[in-house]
């Protein structure tokens, strides 16, 4: 009965082994994973827009080729993650429907505009950097298909982070105005990047559950701190500043003290009131509608093949 199944599930989690699609799992575990993986997939797809904005205006052919490859990787991550979510018994069509009708979310970070070329650098360095810090522990997530998807995705994310860092490094070695442009981008992306890790632990509704089930391995604040500690050193190599006057080493804690992001702003952005929420959703809706003929043609072709009498 359910007790025995629950006991088996608990033992697998306890032993740090993987739950696989055909295994019994508590309904809440399944629903929680669908929520998180879908939100992650939607983030990758919506996340193509801020950088896609600069493909046609990249400063050189080489930069353009690199950016194109990065944005394509994000599409790949999205599809990969939708496939992982589908192993939990939900269809991609339903998932996309829930993004479009607003029942599922995507990361707050993609509701901020990319105003200059330096923003492409800051997104790569800070946003992909935050994504890596958040996602490396997900490679050890208790749900097999999600954990395995994360391994490949993290490898690509580290290339993305390096390309962003290199854009900023180049600008930082350039003219005064290029250096100022890089600094301005960091000033605007720093706090939204800190907010990517979610609300503080005291307000995080899912953390306790998700950590007990080993979906999440570290709390929101734990990962945020790790990200801050990592960025300080990297900023000093760039010769640029992180825009936080309170940032300083705390020898007692063995970490940098820092100013928290504005969590009221995070909640507003999550609710749909960020600077670009409307634009991002309109664009996605239009792309979905304009792609309807591709889906119909693919379905018609599959039906035709299925009906064909074997020779
Ligand atoms: N934005 O109880 P918690 C990328 C929601 S990286 C929007 O703490 P949880 C790569 C949360 O859903 C970005 N909503 O939640 C890339 C919940 O609401 P709900 C994607 C947020 O799940 C780079 C409520 O607040 N990465 O795409 C945010 O335990 C460049 C309470 O929060 C992932 O999704 C937020 N920032 O922890 C692509 C990683 N924070 O669902 C293109 C996987 C919280 O009850 C270009 N996800 N909420 O209505 C996770 O690790 C977790 O879901 C967290 C949130 C850490 C994001």
Automatic annotation (TrEMBL):
One annotated GO molecular function: phenylacetyl-CoA 1,2-epoxidase activity
GO biological process: phenylacetate catabolic process
GO CC, any one term: cytosol
Membrane spanning residue stretches: none
Protein name as catalogued: Phenylacetate-CoA oxygenase subunit PaaA
Originating organism: Planosporangium mesophilum
Residues of the full protein shown: 60 to 370 of 373
